[in-house]
Amino acid sequence: MAFRGQAARRDAARAEFRLAETPLLIPAALSLAIFAWLLTLHPAAAGRVYAAYGGVYIPVALIWLWVVEGIQPSAWDWAGVTFSLTGMAIIAFQPG
Prior knowledge:
Blueprint: H1 2-19, H2 22-40, H3 46-67, H4 75-92
């Protein structure tokens, strides 16, 4: 049942994207380009900054799932968060 709901949500998002007018996609592409450019301004390598961002994004997404959508994350979700934050810490806090 959950899979069907996920598939329906995915299909709805695809349909919405296809029906969106091109002028609405221009600000989205521009904001993504600005985000990527801002990453290059960090004194560390941009890839490492982006890895740190991704590592933090995963737990925040699960908190959103829990608080906003009312779905309690499973033990597997929390295990994934642990691996994500560990990987982010290894990349972000490496010596030298």
